[in-house]
Structure formats: C-alpha cells, structure tokens
Amino acid sequence: MIYINAFILVGLISMIGQLILDNTKLTPGHITSLFVCAGAILSFFGIYEHLINFSKIGSSIPITSFGNLLYLAAYEGFKTKGIIGLFSNMLVTTSAGISSSVIFGFLVSIFFKSKD
Length: 116
Hints:
The protein is mainly α. The chain is built from six helices and no strands.
C-alpha cells in the first residue's frame, strides 16, 4: 500500500506540473520554483506532514520536499539562534543534495556535449 500511496502522490504532483506547463507560458524553471515555494507553504500550514504520513518516502521524491526541508531547517535555526539562525541554518539539511547536484552536473558537462 505504501508504494501505491507514493505513486499517487508523486503522480498527482507531476500531473499538476505538466498541466501548468501545457496550459501556461511558464517555463520549467518557473514551475520548479513554484513547487519549492508550494512545499514550504504546505509545510508552514502543517499539510506536508500529512503528505509524509500518507506516502512515507514518496513525499521525498518531488521537488516540493526541497521546500519542506528549507522551511523546517530555517524554522529550527530561528528557534535555536534567532533571526541569524533563520538564514544560517537554512541550507544545513539540503547541503548534501545541493553539493551533489553541482558536482554531478559538472561531471556530466565534461563527458557530454549539449546539442543546439
């Protein structure tokens, strides 16, 4: 059942993204930013916690989980260090993902050439 719930959640988020892409003039970069902000907003209102309980690991797959992690880390930093912690703690939980995407993007750019 966990696999089905994860499939439903990720499929629903992907479907929403595809509908936005097909029916608006927004670029994939705009949609990605929109989903990161949506994940943070859902986390702020406590809705993302219910999505995690519903789909377990499926909620960590889409880009909305990045917004959730940014919000949770910023909030934790704010609780411990005040306003400075809000900014200094924001990338603590996501630094491994950001670093690996930069490194792998660089490695892929070495071995493959882009086509016009």
